[in-house]
Every structure is written in structure tokens, then in C-alpha cells.
Amino acid sequence: MYTYEASAKLLERAKQSLAGGVSSEFRKYNHPHAIFYTHANGSRIYDVDGNEYIDFTLSQGPMLVGHNHPHVVKRVEEYAKNGQLYAGQHVLEIELAEKLQQIIPCAELMRFCLDGSEAVQTAFRVARAKTGKPKFIRFEGHYHGWLDNVAWGLSTPSIDDLGSREHPNVFPWTAGLPAHTADDFITLPWNDATLLRQTIQEKHHEIAAIITEPIMCNNGCILPIKGYLQEMRELCSQYDIALIFDEVITGFRTALGGAQSYFNIVPDLAIFAKAMASGYPISAIVGKRDWMQLIANGTVIHAGTMNSSNSTIAAAIGTLEVLEAGNCIEHIYTLGQQLMEGLRDIAKNTNNNILVQGLGPMLHTGFTQLPAVKDFRDVLTYDKVKLGKFIAGMHDNGIRVIGRGLWYISAAHTTADIEQALTVASTILKQI
Ligand code: PLP
């Protein structure tokens, strides 16, 4: 049973200088409070109390090849010794862009940024500029970063607060949002093709873009209903709307070319980030030439002092080389499936109503009576108290899972890691 005294002490000290003791809001919500780590390697991460965890959070997704992968480290060390940032171009950027062109179906042109949030905003700018229309459609339960026009509807209300499916209520996630940013978008429940079609038929003259996580990973791990993404694709083409896939989570993880490769649906624009560079700050907005042309010719401005620094580009190249060389993605799927099946068996044997959903590379465990969960309104039926006990019990016994029940698998995980996680899960679930 783990204890966390050293982390608790450091947190008190950190609160005197770092607002809330952390550098990102989400880091407050570890169990039992923000934890301070010392190092991480492969599938393992270690904290200041000497606790060792098998890490299924993978730093909220980025560590697809595992922590501290030697090839990525080597690539960064080799290239960063030339300096870090030139306010000018360097050759490795072209190599990375050419690699991404080969593996991501819609990536005819691209720009590199620092994180998913700003790349999302760049995509909106391109969509508005090309279509001359002001708004985007987004979906309940999807997360597209923390900036103003997407920081709505992210707190978890009750189903009643959400209002009707046709006209959902959205609430600000944070104080300080300009009220007018709520006019930038229309919110809809996800996985409902009829409602989407009706809305677009009615309002297409004001809709520049639809943004979607192609798999809803931020609430549950929910696959699109058959035909749904295809319908989206067709509506966007018909009504001059940009289809934007937010592949910040699905990128490189569902397939090297992202969910667009996996589902064979090609969006107009897409955002890749998290798993791209093993924790180095880089993202990409990629897209079809006729959309990205607006950035190429300077109609749409995209900039950033820190973009495409030597170490971030080298880390991305190194990560892709690791992914391409081995059978990494196959290995990740195999382990993910093993974990999903194991968790289902344990749930049955311990009489727990646990729904395990996902693809394998990422999966979700939620306590619910529902046989399947298809949208955010269903997600709100999950028993959060039970989930909290499960996550805390796992954590106290060396298995680190994201608090909302999401698990990520990396190429560094082993069958033994999965077996250990299942053994702990079995013990904890008997106690819940
Ligand atoms: N889009 C999705 C689907 C995400 O999951 C996230 C972050 O979790 C973002 C965008 C924002 O990315 P970042 O945190 O890199 O700004």
C-alpha cells in the first residue's frame, strides 16, 4: 500500500510559488493529490516517495513508445547539440514533414506548432478564411484544448442541465471567458447522424467547420457508429464545410496515420500532437492542399517563435522511426485487447458492472448498467464514486490509470505488465 508524504510536502512548498502547486490544472487531480515524480523509463514511472507504477496514463498519451526511449533520446542529443532555435528553417523539418505526408492521408501540406490547443485554433482560422463563414460545430464531451472558444461545456453537469438534444445548454468551463466566444460554435450530441444532418441543412450558411475527435477519447472511449464519420464527410463536402479531425489522441496510436487511416475517411484538416514526439512540445496542423494553401500564401497567418525547434523535430523523427521499425502498433493492439478481455472477465467474476470500451491502444473502464455507451449523455450515467475508488485502489498498488478511467498502452508495456495490472484489478474490484 503506497503512501505519499514526500509528495504532500512538496505540494505545500510548490503552492507558495506555483499557482495551485501545479503547471496544468489537470495535474491537481492525481490520487490522492498532485504527485511529484523523479524519473520514468519504459512502462514505469517513479515518485518522490519511492513508489513505482506501471504507467497507463503515459503522460496523458504522449509516451506511445514508452518513457525515455533510448532511440528518441539519442536523436535529440545528436541534433540538439547544433543549437536549438534559429528563427529560420532547418533540414530536419522537411524530413519530418515528408514523413508525415507519407503516413497521414490528408497531410498534403502542414505547419508545426507547440501543442494541440493552438493547432486547433489554426484549423478554425483556415476554415473561416476559406469558407467565409463564422461558426464551427463541436460535440458534447469532446475536448479540443483549453482556449476560449472551446472551453465551454467541459464541466460535468447532470443530464438535466444539458437540456434538449436539439439545443444543448453549454456552460463556461472557467471564469474569464469572453461571452461572445459562445457564439463561435454550435454544440450537438455526438454519434447522431440525423441530428447532424438536420442542423447542417438548416444552418450550413453559417458553418465553417465540424470538429470532432474521430474516436471520442476524452469521455469514455467511444467509437463512431458505423457510417457516422462517412456521413460527416459527405455533409462537409456538400455544404462547403471543413471537416476537422482532432487526432491529438488518435494520431499515431490507432494507426500510424491516425484514425483517418483506421477508418479510411479523409478529413480536410487534422491536428496531431500528443504521441508525435514522446513528450517534446510539438503539434501539427495538416490538411489538404486547397485548405492549407491559405497558410502557404499568407492569407491566413500562423506563427510562433518556438515552432519546430531542433529537439522537438528530432524527437518526432526519432519517435516515428521507432514506430516504423518495429511491430509497435500491432504489439500495442495485442496488449490492449488482452487488457480489455481480462478486465471484462474480472468484472464478471467479481459481480461488477464494468463497461470496457475502446480499441486497445486506448480503452476506458466505467461503472454502469448500460450495455454500451455511445455519447456524452450516456457517459454521465457512469458511477463516479466507484470509479474513484477503483482508480485510487489501483494507484495505491502501483498501477497508474487516468482518473476518468482511461488507459493508454505503449510499445514498452509487456504481457507481464498487463498481467500485473489485472491481478491488482482483481483484488481491488473484490473490495468495491
Ligand atoms: N484535442 C484533444 C482531443 C485533446 O485530448 C487535447 C488534450 O488533451 C487537446 C486537443 C489539447 O492539446 P494540448 O493539451 O496539447 O494543448
TrEMBL record:
PANTHER family assigned to the protein according to its UniProt record, in alphabetical order: GLUTAMATE-1-SEMIALDEHYDE 2,1-AMINOMUTASE, GLUTAMATE-1-SEMIALDEHYDE 2,1-AMINOMUTASE 1, CHLOROPLASTIC-RELATED
GO molecular function: pyridoxal phosphate binding; transaminase activity
SUPFAM superfamilies, alphabetized: PLP-dependent transferases
Similarity-based family: Belongs to the class-III pyridoxal-phosphate-dependent aminotransferase family.
Protein name per its UniProtKB record: Aminotransferase class III-fold pyridoxal phosphate-dependent enzyme
Lineage, opening ranks: Bacteria, Pseudomonadati, Bacteroidota, Chitinophagia, Chitinophagales
UniProt xrefs under CDD domains: OAT_like (cd00610)
Organism: Limnovirga soli
Cofactor(s) of this protein: pyridoxal 5'-phosphate
Keyword terms, alphabetized: Aminotransferase, Pyridoxal phosphate, Transferase
InterPro entries the UniProt entry points to: Aminotrans_3 (IPR005814), Aminotrans_3_PPA_site (IPR049704), PyrdxlP-dep_Trfase (IPR015424), PyrdxlP-dep_Trfase_major (IPR015421), PyrdxlP-dep_Trfase_small (IPR015422)
Keyword Mitochondrion among record annotations: no
